[in-house]
């Protein structure tokens, strides 16, 4: 969901939260709903941001408090980064002491809504102008259960210098996965320690989310429409077969450490030709002075498709007054005037088309090479389904991907095991 520090303990950004299944039993009471002595409603926000992301959200909180005298948002709580927020909130729900708002990864939201303490924001937010990926990420079983917080997309960043050294033309939109495999092999130079591309090999969500666009492109999906079985059983082996071809060509760098830090460091160090990543990586590329380009992901079908891994501002029910105040804050936060500040300073893509059309974003995009490609990709971006079984499906598929990356299983055997495990999970009523 990157390792760029601002917002973005991100994605450390993307990891499945297998531990969240315990939330179904959480019915703990929250904090007292009383207002402060001065009649102001206190709202506790756990945002988990660091560095420039923290500075951006703190500045917005201060502006809101200045312009909304009847609400006071306190943004210093939680004591953990966004990567650890789910565990912190889950423990708080169990103990009966939880925030009014928390920054929750989109892939975790459905499982968290098993708790009755997650507020229903249906009717409280106007999301009509928001990108479909942002809307879908906060909708669980037809109800709006959070506000969009951060939006990204996955595209392909390439090193222009390495392409030139290998005598290769720059990749273009519409290129195929066969083109990608051939290009990665041509870029690989073992004598100089140069890899064509790379992939996380831990088995976490950072490993998994990169495969979903390939599965969607082949006509598959995470789960069937009735939710009773997976829908990647017929195409998963082909997607994994692409990784297997890269592995056998020895053009693939597999990062076996959590967080994908090594993978990105290899790319930033000029020893990797191409990497799938998000807009959070662009500041690091600029700081490194790397001559790079950005193109959409390769395709099997010829049609563009990618994935977005949105995060959310999830509101918790500590009483009607607090829910109302918290909803007012997050609704204010996601409007274009505030969203643009968060996007530029915190590292997000525009949450809505209105923000994307603003002069401030146009200026920022024009000054950041490749950023427009990530925004354009939102037109075809899909999100992982907001189903409570997703973390366990992700875990099973992650294990399958790693087994192929390490040459321990064939794509057919690996996907069969993932399908069997996932179908067993889906067979249990949520």
Automatic annotation (TrEMBL):
CDD domains linked to this entry: PBP2_UgpB
GO BP terms in the entry: maltodextrin transmembrane transport; maltose transport
Keyword Membrane carried by entry: no
Keyword Signal attached: yes
Key words of the record: Signal, Transport
Molecular function terms, GO-annotated: maltose binding
Family the UniProt entry places it in: Belongs to the bacterial solute-binding protein 1 family.
Name the UniProt record assigns to this protein: ABC transporter substrate-binding protein
Organism, scientific name: Kribbella antibiotica
Taxonomic placement: Bacteria, Bacillati, Actinomycetota, Actinomycetes, Propionibacteriales
